[in-house]
Write a structure and sequence with these properties.
This protein is an all-alpha fold. The chain has helices at residues 2-28, 35-41, 46-53, 56-80, 85-98, 103-117, 124-142, 151-171, 175-191.
């Protein structure tokens, strides 16, 4: 019983730190977010941060994982709502790209994340997105709706196109203009995989 309560308390502490960091990183950016201010805001010590995440970078990784996971879930829900694997694939890509306009996503996931954590295509959360895309692509290839391409290669290229479009939008001085261009290009690139034009 005591072990369960201890685990619950550890999870509560982690959740508090992630939420506080998410707010601080979104408002101030990673470089300007103070760990002392962040921990004080939730009544914890720096020791709690280091115990749970190792360091500030580890905390950023946890925040990015959380937000990126939420982004993937939102995009998949939008795609699944179409009731069609092909349209769902297009809608998932569109939704992910459009999320680059959201300030929290821009700053934490698309700007600070890559600067601090490295190549986003190697993040665990991106790999789960890839697996979901791979399932749909494999099914579409098997059904003959897509050309007989290697499903993993196609899934990686589709995910890479959406991710790079989002990175481009986030870094742009004119994100709305870039969004329109990126969405059009993404649709044309993806449609090149179709066995027959829709």
């Amino acid at each position: 019983m005591a072990t369960n309560r201890r685990l619950e308390m550890m999870e509560e502490t982690r959740a508090k730190l992630i939420q506080a960091a998410r707010k601080a990183f979104a408002e101030k950016g990673y470089a300007n977010a103070s760990m002392d201010d962040l921990t004080a805001a939730v009544g914890l010590t720096r020791g709690a941060l280091y115990h749970n995440f190792g360091d500030k970078r580890g905390l950023l990784q946890a925040v990015v994982d959380r937000i990126d996971g939420e982004m993937a879930a939102r995009a998949q829900a939008i795609g699944n709502a179409t009731g069609d694997d092909w349209q769902g694939l297009l809608e998932e890509g569109r939704a992910y790209i459009e999320m680059a306009l959201e300030p929290e996503v821009q700053r934490i996931v698309l700007l600070d994340g890559p600067a601090v954590l490295g190549d986003p295509s190697q993040w665990p959360s991106q790999n789960s997105c890839l697996q979901a895309t791979l399932v749909k692509v494999r099914r579409l290839v098997e059904e003959g709706r897509l050309k007989p391409v290697d499903p993993e290669a196609a899934a990686r290229l589709l995910n890479g196109a959406a991710l790079n479009a989002a990175l481009w939008i986030a870094a742009s001085a004119e994100p709305q203009d870039v969004l329109a261009k990126a969405l059009e290009a993404f649709r044309h690139l993806a449609s090149g995989l179709l066995a027959k034009a829709d």
